[in-house]
Amino acid sequence: MKKAIICAAVAAISAMSFTMKAQDTPKVKDINETQFLEKVFNYRNDSTDVTLSRPAVVDFWAPWCAPCMRIAPVIDELAVKYGDKVDFYKMNIDDNQQVAQDLRISSIPLVVFFPAGSHPFKGAVGVQPTEVYENAVKEMISQAEADSAAGAAAE
Questions:
Q1: What long-range pairs does 12-20 form, CB within 8 A, spacing at least 24?
Q2: Which is the catalytic residue, given 50, 68, 86, 100?
Q3: What confidence tens digit (pLDDT) does each residue in 59-85 have?
Q4: Which domains are seen in the chain, by residue range?
Q5: Annotated catalytic, 7?
Q6: Which residue stretches of the chain are H helix?
Q7: For this structure, is 68 an active site residue?
Q8: pTM score of the predicted model
Q9: Which of the residues 50, 52, 65, 71 is marked catalytic?
Q10: Cβ-proximal residues to 145 (8 Å cutoff; 6+ apart), any chain
Q11: 51 by DSSP, 3-state: which?
Q12: Which of 45, 97, 144, 146 is within CB 3.0–4.6 Å of 116 for a Cys-Cys bond?
Protein backbone atom coordinates (compact mmCIF):
# COMPACT_ATOMS: atom_id res chain seq x y z
CA MET A 1 0.00 0.00 0.00
CA LYS A 2 2.81 2.40 0.93
CA LYS A 3 4.58 1.57 -2.30
CA ALA A 4 1.46 2.35 -4.37
CA ILE A 5 1.00 5.71 -2.63
CA ILE A 6 4.65 6.66 -3.21
CA CYS A 7 4.45 5.64 -6.87
CA ALA A 8 1.27 7.68 -7.33
CA ALA A 9 2.86 10.72 -5.68
CA VAL A 10 5.97 10.49 -7.86
CA ALA A 11 3.82 10.14 -10.98
CA ALA A 12 1.72 13.16 -9.99
CA ILE A 13 4.80 15.30 -9.34
CA SER A 14 6.35 14.22 -12.63
CA ALA A 15 3.17 15.04 -14.53
CA MET A 16 2.94 18.45 -12.85
CA SER A 17 6.54 19.36 -13.65
CA PHE A 18 6.14 18.17 -17.26
CA THR A 19 2.93 20.18 -17.65
CA MET A 20 4.53 23.29 -16.17
CA LYS A 21 7.56 22.94 -18.44
CA ALA A 22 5.44 22.38 -21.55
CA GLN A 23 3.43 25.54 -20.83
CA ASP A 24 6.52 27.67 -20.20
CA THR A 25 8.48 26.84 -23.33
CA PRO A 26 7.89 27.57 -27.00
CA LYS A 27 7.57 24.39 -28.95
CA VAL A 28 8.89 23.15 -32.24
CA LYS A 29 5.71 22.77 -34.28
CA ASP A 30 5.02 19.73 -36.43
CA ILE A 31 4.03 20.78 -39.95
CA ASN A 32 2.75 18.98 -42.99
CA GLU A 33 3.12 19.71 -46.70
CA THR A 34 0.27 22.23 -46.87
CA GLN A 35 1.50 24.14 -43.83
CA PHE A 36 5.06 24.15 -45.16
CA LEU A 37 3.91 25.64 -48.45
CA GLU A 38 1.77 28.26 -46.67
CA LYS A 39 4.04 29.22 -43.77
CA VAL A 40 7.59 28.63 -44.94
CA PHE A 41 8.36 28.11 -48.61
CA ASN A 42 5.99 27.67 -51.52
CA TYR A 43 8.50 26.19 -53.95
CA ARG A 44 5.68 25.39 -56.37
CA ASN A 45 5.13 29.02 -57.37
CA ASP A 46 8.12 28.99 -59.79
CA SER A 47 10.18 31.20 -57.50
CA THR A 48 13.21 30.35 -55.44
CA ASP A 49 12.61 33.36 -53.22
CA VAL A 50 11.55 32.88 -49.64
CA THR A 51 9.73 35.92 -48.33
CA LEU A 52 8.98 35.30 -44.68
CA SER A 53 8.13 38.00 -42.17
CA ARG A 54 10.01 36.02 -39.49
CA PRO A 55 12.96 33.66 -39.85
CA ALA A 56 12.12 29.96 -39.72
CA VAL A 57 14.00 26.76 -38.97
CA VAL A 58 12.72 23.47 -40.36
CA ASP A 59 14.05 20.15 -39.08
CA PHE A 60 13.40 17.42 -41.66
CA TRP A 61 13.45 14.08 -39.83
CA ALA A 62 12.05 10.55 -39.64
CA PRO A 63 11.15 8.41 -36.61
CA TRP A 64 13.59 5.64 -37.60
CA CYS A 65 16.54 8.07 -37.89
CA ALA A 66 18.75 7.85 -34.78
CA PRO A 67 20.79 10.97 -35.67
CA CYS A 68 17.51 12.87 -36.02
CA MET A 69 16.66 11.93 -32.44
CA ARG A 70 20.06 13.23 -31.33
CA ILE A 71 19.51 16.71 -32.72
CA ALA A 72 15.85 17.06 -31.69
CA PRO A 73 16.75 18.27 -28.16
CA VAL A 74 19.14 20.82 -29.66
CA ILE A 75 16.39 22.23 -31.88
CA ASP A 76 14.01 22.21 -28.89
CA GLU A 77 16.57 24.16 -26.86
CA LEU A 78 16.99 26.71 -29.64
CA ALA A 79 13.20 27.09 -29.84
CA VAL A 80 13.13 27.90 -26.14
CA LYS A 81 16.00 30.37 -26.47
CA TYR A 82 15.01 32.09 -29.74
CA GLY A 83 11.32 31.24 -30.20
CA ASP A 84 10.31 34.86 -29.70
CA LYS A 85 12.20 35.84 -32.89
CA VAL A 86 12.27 32.67 -35.01
CA ASP A 87 9.62 30.09 -35.93
CA PHE A 88 10.73 26.48 -35.40
CA TYR A 89 9.14 23.60 -37.28
CA LYS A 90 9.77 19.91 -37.82
CA MET A 91 8.58 17.81 -40.73
CA ASN A 92 8.45 14.03 -40.75
CA ILE A 93 9.59 13.12 -44.26
CA ASP A 94 7.94 9.70 -44.04
CA ASP A 95 4.58 11.45 -43.70
CA ASN A 96 5.45 14.15 -46.24
CA GLN A 97 7.25 12.23 -48.95
CA GLN A 98 6.23 14.60 -51.73
CA VAL A 99 8.04 17.52 -50.09
CA ALA A 100 11.12 15.37 -49.53
CA GLN A 101 11.04 14.28 -53.16
CA ASP A 102 10.38 17.78 -54.53
CA LEU A 103 13.19 19.31 -52.45
CA ARG A 104 15.46 16.35 -53.23
CA ILE A 105 16.08 15.56 -49.58
CA SER A 106 18.26 12.48 -49.66
CA SER A 107 19.97 12.67 -46.26
CA ILE A 108 18.55 13.36 -42.84
CA PRO A 109 18.66 14.93 -40.42
CA LEU A 110 18.48 18.07 -42.49
CA VAL A 111 17.95 21.39 -40.75
CA VAL A 112 17.14 24.27 -43.09
CA PHE A 113 17.37 27.91 -42.02
CA PHE A 114 14.95 30.21 -43.87
CA PRO A 115 15.76 33.88 -43.15
CA ALA A 116 13.12 36.60 -43.18
CA GLY A 117 12.90 38.68 -46.31
CA SER A 118 14.38 37.38 -49.51
CA HIS A 119 17.78 36.20 -48.30
CA PRO A 120 18.99 32.78 -49.51
CA PHE A 121 18.39 29.89 -47.18
CA LYS A 122 21.02 27.52 -45.78
CA GLY A 123 21.01 23.95 -44.57
CA ALA A 124 22.95 21.66 -42.26
CA VAL A 125 22.97 17.94 -43.08
CA GLY A 126 23.72 15.34 -40.45
CA VAL A 127 24.49 15.88 -36.80
CA GLN A 128 26.43 19.11 -36.34
CA PRO A 129 27.82 20.75 -33.21
CA THR A 130 25.20 22.84 -31.40
CA GLU A 131 27.14 25.99 -32.32
CA VAL A 132 26.50 25.41 -36.04
CA TYR A 133 22.73 25.51 -35.50
CA GLU A 134 22.86 28.36 -33.01
CA ASN A 135 25.16 30.50 -35.17
CA ALA A 136 22.83 30.06 -38.15
CA VAL A 137 19.86 31.14 -36.01
CA LYS A 138 21.76 34.16 -34.68
CA GLU A 139 22.76 35.13 -38.23
CA MET A 140 19.11 35.03 -39.35
CA ILE A 141 18.08 37.18 -36.38
CA SER A 142 20.83 39.70 -37.18
CA GLN A 143 19.72 39.84 -40.83
CA ALA A 144 16.10 40.38 -39.80
CA GLU A 145 17.06 43.15 -37.37
CA ALA A 146 19.27 44.84 -40.00
CA ASP A 147 16.48 44.63 -42.57
CA SER A 148 14.01 46.07 -40.07
CA ALA A 149 16.37 48.95 -39.23
CA ALA A 150 16.98 49.65 -42.92
CA GLY A 151 13.23 49.66 -43.56
CA ALA A 152 12.63 52.06 -40.68
CA ALA A 153 15.41 54.37 -41.90
CA ALA A 154 13.92 54.43 -45.40
CA GLU A 155 10.57 55.67 -44.08
A1: none
A2: 68
A3: 999 999 999 999 999 999 999 999 999
A4: 27-154 (3.40.30.10)
A5: no
A6: 2-24, 33-39, 66-82, 97-102, 130-154
A7: yes
A8: 0.78
A9: 65
A10: none
A11: coil
A12: 144
